[in-house]
Amino acid sequence: MRRSTGFTLVELVIVIVLLAIVATISVQFVALSTQGAIDVSSRQQRSLAGAVISEQISRQLREALPTSVRANGACLEWMPITAASNYLNLPSGASPNSFEAVPLPSSRSASGRVVVYGYGKSVYDTSSPGPISPPATMPAAHRL
After folding, report:
1. CA neighbor of 136 nearest in space, from 106, 96, 105
2. What is the pLDDT of residue 76?
3. For residues 68 and 124, what is the distance between their CA atoms, to the nearest angstrom?
4. Are 122 and 67 in contact (CB under 8 A)?
5. Which tens digits make up the pLDDT trace of 52-82?
6. H/E/C letters for each residue in 79-103?
7. What is d(CA 6, CA 12) in angstroms, rounded to the nearest whole number?
């Protein structure tokens, strides 16, 4: 009698079960590797955002009015310099209300508080802030 060649049903089922186990392990390995790459990318993006924010704060603090930086609870507070000019004569008298300054370039104007050489220990100290005006506007230069 001739013996037929081939696989039995039991052999085929065992091979299918073994392949399923190998495939499950492979899929888990690929999934964990992909999730790790996504996590690293997310951390890098947050780190870059933190570096950008830190640089922005650093630049703005460099442009702050001297003696205006202070901690206010968990926050940092300062008065930014929006425009700068030289004064031609200082205000004088008992209640000075104006002085002459070099006009801003390029026909620009600025509004805010005017500080004439802030020499006090803090611009927030009401007893000795230095000469600080109420809100004011510096007009643009007039072209003749």
Report:
1. 96
2. 84
3. 7
4. yes
5. 999 998 988 888 877 778 888 888 888 787 7
6. CECCCCCCEEECCCCCCCCCCEECC
7. 10
What separation in angstroms does the CA of 33 have from each of 14, 37, 47? 29, 6, 21
- Residue 77: per-residue pLDDT: 83
> 15-57: per-residue pLDDT in tens?
999 999 999 999 999 999 999 999 999 999 999 999 999 999 8
Q: Look at the pTM and tell me if it is higher than 0.70.
A: no
Distance (Å, whole) CA 7 – CA 5: 7
Three-state DSSP state, 134? strand
Here the tokens at position 96 are 């000075």
Q: Which helix (H) or strand (E) holds 13?
A: helix 9-62
CA 79/CA 22 separation, integer angstroms: 65
pLDDT above 90 as % of the chain: 33
The domain segmentation of the chain, as residue ranges, is: 8-62, 82-138
Rounded-to-integer distance, Cα 106 and Cα 88, Å: 19
